[in-house]
Amino acid sequence: FGLGLDYAMYHKRFWGIFDQNDFSPWERLGGIFTSAPTAIGWAGSRIDTFGVGMDHAMYVRTCIGEQWTPDWLRLGGSFTSAASLVSRGPQLDIFARGADFTLRGNHTDGAKWFGWQNLGGALASKPVAVSWGPDRIDIFAIFKDGALWHRWWDGEIWNDWESLGGNY
C-alpha cells in the first residue's frame, strides 16, 4: 500500500515467491489523503485499509477476497496521525491521535463500527497498538512531556495511562 503523488491510495498484490513478476500492477484505490495508508489483514481473506482524508476524518476501504468495496467509508472523527491497527480474533480495533492530541479508538466486528471513544492522554506521537490475546490491547505513545506512556485494555476496562519514562 502507498500514497501516490496525487494523494490517492494505491496497492499491489503479491501472488507468489519473492520475484518481481509475482506482484500485480499498482491498483488505484482512489480518495485524497493526508496520511500514509495503514492496512491490516484479518478475518480470513479480509483486508481493511485506512487513511486520514483532507477533512481530517478517518476513512476505510475493505477488500474481501479480491473484491474491494465500491467506495471509501467515512468513519468520522478529526485526526492528526495515521491509524494504528490490531486484530483480536473476530474484532478489529483502530487507534489514532485526535485533533485535541488525545487517543481515539474505535472497533468493528466486521459488520458495523461502534463509534469513536476518547481514551485521553496528551500524545505528541502517533500511537502504536499491539495485541497479544483476545482480551489484551497495549497502546504506546510519546506524550508532550517527552516520555513514553502506556495504556492497556484487560478485557474489561481501559487501565489508566502510566509513564514509562524516558525523554524522546
Polypeptide structure, described:
This protein has strands spanning 2-3, 9-11, 27-30, 38-42, 46-52, 58-64, 67-68, 73-76, 84-88, 91-97, 103-108, 117-118, 128-133, 136-142, 148-153, 162-163. It has 168 residues and is mostly beta strands. The strands form 4 sheets. Strands 4, 5, 6, 7 and 8 form a 5-stranded antiparallel beta sheet that branches. Strands 9-10-11-12 form a 4-stranded antiparallel beta sheet, with no helix packed on it. It has a 4-stranded antiparallel beta sheet with strand order 13-14-15-16, with no helix packed on it. A hairpin with a 2-residue loop joins strand 9 (84-88) and strand 10 (91-97). It is globular, with a radius of gyration of 17 Å. The mean pLDDT is 93.
Structure keywords:
168 residues, mainly beta, five-stranded antiparallel sheet, four-stranded antiparallel sheet, 45% strand
Mean pLDDT: 93
Largest sheet: 5 strands, antiparallel
How far apart, in Å, are the first and last alpha carbons?
29 Å
β-strand percent reads 35-45%
Secondary structural class: mainly beta
How many E-type strands?
A: 16
- What is the H-and-E element order? EEEEEEEEEEEEEEEE
Low-confidence stretches: none
Helix content estimate: under 10%
Total helical segments: 0
| Radius of gyration computed on alpha carbons | 17 Å
The shape, in one word, is globular
